[in-house]
Write a structure and sequence with these properties.
Order of helices and strands: EEEEEEEEEEEEEEEEEEEEEEEEEEEE
CATH topology of one domain: Pectate Lyase C-like
Largest sheet: 21 strands, parallel
CATH architecture of one domain: 3 Solenoid
Number of helices: 0
Structural class: mainly beta
Shape: elongated
């Protein structure tokens, strides 16, 4: 394996098609696509300061490194990349890439990031930017903080655990999403999704959880959430009361109480949804 230590690279395609290399404390200055088409690359404590640094690469490991704002659209069409303890300041990072593993990564400008990517693992990632992970497939997301309006739009086969998500319109048009032990806040949560499961979550939403086929809530809390479940096929076991329920299409809802229930016979079949108040014998104990 060829090693480069404390070098500065400039110019377009500085290390084009490089194979089996290790970079230590190297800096990539002005010059597009410095590592394009590279294979089996290790980058430790490096700085990427220009556009498109890791396009069409395979087998990349990046540690303790930084993609600066000017390294925008940095990782596209790449297969197999691990990033650990990194800062990704550049927007539009990761596009149509597969086999991505991010651990202890900060993405403060995650605008249009992880679009069309597949087989992604995110652990202790802090990301802030709209439209995160649009049309992504097979994501596992654990212990992350995501501030991202419209995140996971059109995504499929997503597992999220122990996360905090502040996101208007999260999970729109998604398929097979499961969220466990998490906090989610944002308007219009989950519209037009299919097979959305929320388990042991705290949810705040205005007119959320509507137009969903196969919506399941297990031991969830709906805080400051009103006009929920409109035109949704729902199976919901809710811990606590609900501010308002409006015109679910079918299924059942069980909660400790309801401030308002809106069921309009000219809009839905009111007999198709069972709405119940949990009896005292069914109340959960601490």
């Amino acid at each position: 394996m060829k090693e480069y230590s404390r070098q500065i690279f400039t110019g377009e395609r500085a290390l084009f098609c490089a194979k089996d290399i290790k970079l230590y404390e190297c800096t990539f200055e002005d010059g597009e696509s410095p590592l394009k088409e590279g294979q089996e690359i290790i980058a430790d404590s490096c700085a990427f300061r220009w556009k498109y640094p890791l396009w069409y690469c395979r087998g990349v490991k990046v540690k303790d490194s930084t993609l600066f704002d000017t390294a925008r659209a940095g990782i596209w069409y790449t297969q197999g990349i691990e990033m650990t303890n990194c800062i990704i300041e550049a927007p539009k990072t990761f596009r149509r890439s597969t086999g991505i593993k991010l651990t202890d990564v900060s993405i403060p400008n995650a605008q249009e990031t992880l679009w069309g990517c597949e087989d992604v693992e995110m652990t202790r990632v802090n990301a802030h930017g709209d439209y995160l992970a649009m049309n992504g497939k097979r994501f596992t997301v654990r212990d992350c903080t995501l501030l991202s309006n419209y995140c996971f739009d059109g995504a499929q086969d997503i597992i999220i655990e122990n996360c905090r998500i502040l996101a208007k319109d999260a999970f729109w048009n998604s398929v097979n999403v499961t969220v466990k032990n998490s906090y989610i806040a944002g308007e219009y949560l989950g519209w037009n999704a299919r097979n959305l499961t929320l388990e042991n979550c705290t949810i705040e939403s205005l007119q959320g959880l509507c137009y969903i086929k196969g919506l399941k809530l297990k031991n969830c809390r709906l805080v400051n959430t009103n006009l929920a479940f409109e035109y949704s096929d729902v199976e919901a076991d809710i811990d606590g009361s609900v501010d308002s329920v409006k015109n679910p299409s079918s299924g059942y809802i069980i909660a400790d109480g309801y401030v308002e229930i809106i069921m309009e016979p000219d809009k839905v079949d009111v007999e198709a949804t069972r709405i119940e108040v949990r009896s005292r014998s069914e109340e959960k104990t601490a």
